[in-house]
Amino acid sequence: MNKRIAVIVGHPDKESYNFAIAEAYKKGVQTSGAEIQEIIIRDLDFNPNLQFGYRKRTKLEPDLLKSQEILKWADHLVWIYPVWWGSIPAIMKGFLDRVLLPGYAFNKKENSLWWNKHFTGKTSRIICTLDQPAWYYKWFYGNPSHNAMKKLTLNFIGVKKVQITTICPIRLSKKEFRVKWLNKVEKLGLMNK
After folding, report:
1. Is 55 exposed, middle or buried (0-12, 13-18, 19+ CB in 10 A)?
2. Taking 70 as the threshold, does the pLDDT of residue 1 lie above it?
3. Could you give the CA distance from residue 193 to residue 129 in angstroms, rounded to a whole number?
4. Residues 148, 85: contact at Cβ < 8 Å?
């Protein structure tokens, strides 16, 4: 059976290098023969604000319902986004808030602090860009966006195996650097990783 891969792009600018990364990854997947679907968050019609928190359910827009179907369908989730202010772009945070809901991505156990995870058995790769060197982001800041996406989001809903590819520093990078990384990302797609 072919692997089913969902590529989720969290950059709001379609002209960004992140979209070139997504295209390179998709090219590799298509060459491999695996199945692929993508979610381009910037193209979705939805309110990114979790208006009532978890007190009251906000009706999901059709684009979010379709996104939930794709995320459930996939065996492997590939998240592509820039790291801004040590975090993910606002539109992507709004997407996560609205889509990974109780009852869909997890369920709190009654009279317990624990929860059931609904995304067990899936794997994931994060491909993110940084303007600073990876060692600086790790040692001076503690990898905040990596920890939030891997541990506090994906592990929380049951995705145990999460690999992170950090492409950096992007700021002031030369064309050769960017092309080299696009080739590496295409190989990741080819290997379905």
Report:
1. exposed
2. no
3. 18
4. no
